Structures are given as C-alpha cells and as structure tokens.
Amino acid sequence: MGTMDTMGTNTMTPRTTVLKIGGSVLTEKTDTPTPKPEAINRCAGEIASSVTPAAADNRLILVHGAGSFGHPQAEKRSLRNGFTSSEIIEIHRVVASLNELVIGALIKNGLFAVPVHPLGCVVAEDGRIARIATAPIAMMLDRGIVPVLHGDVVMDSRVGASIVSGDQLVTCLATRFGAARIGFGTAVDGVIVDGSVVPQITPETFEAVQSQIRGSDGTDVTGGMRGKVLELLEIGIASHIFNASKPGMIARFLSGEELGTRICGNADV
Amino acid sequence: MGTMDTMGTNTMTPRTTVLKIGGSVLTEKTDTPTPKPEAINRCAGEIASSVTPAAADNRLILVHGAGSFGHPQAEKRSLRNGFTSSEIIEIHRVVASLNELVIGALIKNGLFAVPVHPLGCVVAEDGRIARIATAPIAMMLDRGIVPVLHGDVVMDSRVGASIVSGDQLVTCLATRFGAARIGFGTAVDGVIVDGSVVPQITPETFEAVQSQIRGSDGTDVTGGMRGKVLELLEIGIASHIFNASKPGMIARFLSGEELGTRICGNADV
User: Fold this and answer.
1) How confident is the model at residue A71 (pLDDT cuts 50, 70, 90)?
2) For a designed S-S bond to A153, which of A91, A244, B132, B165 qualifies (C-beta 3.0 to 4.6 A apart)?
3) How many whole angstroms separate alpha carbon A113 and alpha carbon A105?
C-alpha cells in the first residue's frame, strides 16, 4: 500500500455509508450497452430523497456496477492478460457513459453528486486496488457532496491494466473511510440458498452455504454473488445484500432498516 | 506538498512533452458553452499524427482549457469565496462535456487518449494544487496512452472548492514528470508587445515587457497571457506560447520546432 492510500482519509467520520447499485439493476444484461432509464431514475430518486444535503453525519459514497456497459467488453480478454490500449479506452468510455446517466439522474433528483472515475485515481496490482486517491473523496463528503464511483478499467503495475469491480471499490472505500454500513443493491433478494434468502452469513456459516451460492445470471467478469460475499466477509462492517430492483428497498436500506442478507465479517459478528 | 505528489512520478523519463490547447482555440468565447467542432477536430488530427502510439520516448500529456465551457460559470463567484455544491457540480459537468468532445476527436483521429478529471485526483489549497495523484498518469505514459486533463473545479482545503486552471496543471505536471518541453497553444501568435511577437522572455527581460502583456480577450478567470508567462518563468523547462488556431502549428511544435514566444525560466536560460 502506498502513502496515497491514507491521505485525506478520515476514519473518525461517523456514519459513512457505502452503497453499491449493481449493474444488473441499472442496465439490461445484454451484449450491447443498454440502460434501464426508469430503474436508473427510480434508484436516483430513492437515494436523493434519503440523503440530507450537507448533513455531516449522513455521508454517502455511491458505487455502481457496469452491467452491459462494461462486462461484455471486459470479457473479451481475461483479467490476467491485461488489455490493449484500445480496449482500455473502449471499456472506460462505455462505463463512463453509464456513470453519466446515473449522475444525471441523481442531479435531476436534487442530489449533489459528482463523478469520480477510478481510471484517474486508482492503481491496481494484479487486479487488486493498490493505491487510491482518497483526499478528493474525503473533502466531497465533508461538504455533503456524494462521490459516485464505478467499476472501471485501471492501470495495473503487474499486468498493465485490469478491471476493478464495483464490489472491490466498495470494500476498499468502506475500509478506508471507516464506514458504519455497506449496502449492495442487487437484482435479487439477497443470498439465495434452496430458494430462500439467507438472513445472515458469518465466516462460520459461509462454509455450509458457499457451494449453494450461485453467481449472477448473464455475463459477469467480476465475481458475482459469491465474490461479493467473500469480499464482505473479509472486512468487519455490517453489510446488506438486498434487492434494489424492488421499488423502495434502497430508501429502506438508507433509512437504517435491516433487509436482505446480512454479511457479518470477522470483526462484526 | 503531500506524499501523493511524488507517487508514480518518474522524473527520469526522457522527452515528456506537456501540451496545452487553450479554451479560446477549442471554443467560442461566448456566454454559453459553444464548441468549435472543426477546430477541435483539426487540433486532434495534428496531435494524433504527431504522436507515435506506444513510443516510450515520445510521451505526451495533454491539457485543455475550458473557454466558454467553464469560465462564465466560474466567474459567477470569485475565486477566493469558493463555490456552492451546485456550482461545483455545474462547473465540472460543463467542462467535462468539453473534455468528452476533445477525447472523442482524439480517438477518432487514432490517438490512444483517456480523460483524467482533476476533480477526482487533485486537491487544492487556496487555489493552488496541493496534491495530485500522478501514479495513474505515469502508468498511462508508460504504455503510450495520452492522459487528457483540463481546467476544472477541485476540492480546496482552504476555501472549500476552487478553480485549477489548465495553465496551473501544465506547470505542475511538467515539473512532476520532468518534462523536456511545454507548449501553450493559444489563439494568438505568442506574447505580443507593440504589435510584434516577442521571440523570447527571460526573468531578466520580463520586467521590461510585463506591463505591455495583455490578458486574453473575453472572459478569463484564470490569468490570461500574463498569468501564463508568470507560471512558466517559475519553472526551468523550455516553453513555447504559439498560435494553435493556425493550422499546422501544433504539428510543428510537436515535431520539435521553435515557434511563437519562448519562455526561459531560471534554470533554462
């Protein structure tokens, strides 16, 4: 970890929430980039109505996935082999265009939201975030602005360039900013085993359910549900995987409600 | 200066060039954001044809100004008073939309170009760049990708938020990356005194000409010509102010030609 990691990070900040809205919520899982404009606007409305502008004790970092705006492009190459310059440009432009739709909807709904593109502020090492410039994000939070990050292609010191998923950004940012709460708004009700939502997963119970956890439907190069659970188990922050495709669920999560599957990491059981 | 400043900076890199294309070249200096599509495409073509992809000894960092995509918005508030969250969002979105036009034209002309938005990777202190995440930029240069930055609103530890001009980005980046050469493509032939282009300005001759140096025509909150010369005199890197509105001049600059006004700082005379 480089020194850039800690710059501007304020781990004393109370009640920072990191919320990810999955690509499957915001886009059609098709071969070409296809947004769901109504879903984007509904999610934006729920977020905007839940976040008090400039409330220092109610900080939100938003992350969204790429869905059909990134994964099919990224899948052309394996993660380990890196990408050509043309592919880096193509992947970034497409996912940035989804970010623009999300930001536009958030602003239209009255939220102070600004884009933070990982390509310009994150460096990876073999697919994992090695450095992230947190100072601008910390200062946005200080004044009630919601930074909106997204799964992106980033420069990688080992393999040239790699994909940093929204999931990885969430756990990284939640750790650096000492988040009190993490939400994963997905297109399913939570972690499903034998047709039912598992209410809680801990490191102890993960072994029993992990073989039953299905990955996302459709194309997903970034790990799907099992990857999400694994990322969340590593950190000690109360996390919820819930269905953001159902109207009202984002607002309920942001109001503090427990819903979907709760993931309790080592320090949080 | 924070520790983030030096991360990833490779001051041993040979022949890095930092080129700025002024907002007055790319946009109409009007009250509303108005691009000059033909000028944008011509500049992009000259740059693309001059830069060999993936040539490790021919690195280019590109910066562009905001012109009518930023200055009128920024001027609503004085630099010292900072900006409201709404203004931050508005200023960033408008200048980012110009960046998208520039990036699109560069890619269309065959250049590997990616956007690097200062809002997400720069922090200012009282209007001056205090921290900048250089690691992603360094790694882009390593593989022949051209990072494209722009004048932007950024978070500011002293005044909340402030404008970082393209001019300031140029001198900051040129210093951090040990650039061999700086170009300022403007809408005039160079520094004009008594109707003629001054071929060279040094710290010694600056006193004699400074009262004659006019600022830019139209709205410009970021210092104009006199500010440019002052920034360049502070650093010891061969710099040229030339007319990028004249077809062919950017290509001539990038081919190594001396043109316009040469600014020689303290270490460069």
Assistant:
1) low
2) A91
3) 10
